[in-house]
Amino acid sequence: MTCPLCDTLGGRLVYQGRAFRVIHADEAGFPAFYRVVWQSHVAEFSELAPAERVRCMEAVMAVELALRNTLAPRKINLAALGNMVAHLHWHVIARFEQDSHFPSPVWAAAQRARDAALEARVAAALPAAEAAMIEALQMLENPS
Ligand SMILES: [Zn+2]
User: Fold this and answer.
1) Domains of the chain listed by start with CATH number
2) Is 117 exposed, middle or buried (CB count within 10 Å of its CB: 0-12, 13-18, 19+)?
3) Would you state the pLDDT for residue 143?
4) SS3 assignment, position 142
5) Which residue intervals define the domain HIT in the entry (predicted)?
6) If exposure means fewest CB atoms within 10 Å of the residue's CB, which of 5, 28, 83, 126 is most exposed?
7) Could you read off the pLDDT of 23-50 as tens digits, one per residue?
8) What is the CA(130)–ligand 1 centre distance, in A?
9) CA 48 to centroid of ligand 1, rounded, Å
10) Which residues contact 19 (CB under 8 A, 6 or more apart)?
């Protein structure tokens, strides 16, 4: 059986850790859409050992904090669905009041047209967001 998150990175690689990776997902309308992908193939969060659960959520938090500190989003959405791809991954999505779906989930129906100016502003801040993310993730994995 093939698994897209075992066979491919699943997006643009931002950070490769020992047990997880962070990718930027190319999702139209949501420029600040990241995924923390557990490296080994497990379907459910509860399959991780206790220390792995902590590490996974620390990584999610590092991504969340980097997005909050650099983009000042209205809300961060965290989600682990895995109905389409049953390989553990957390979605970390910065949401803005003007985005096409707010306040609905990104997977729901659009509420309004996309805002090109918002998307451009957010996209322009992604390098800073990712630099902050990488620094936090490196500190997480290599505490000095
Ligand atoms: Zn897999």
Assistant:
1) 4-141 (3.30.428.10)
2) exposed
3) 87
4) coil
5) 36-102
6) 83
7) 999 999 999 999 999 999 999 999 999 9
8) 24
9) 14
10) 38, 39, 40, 52, 55, 56
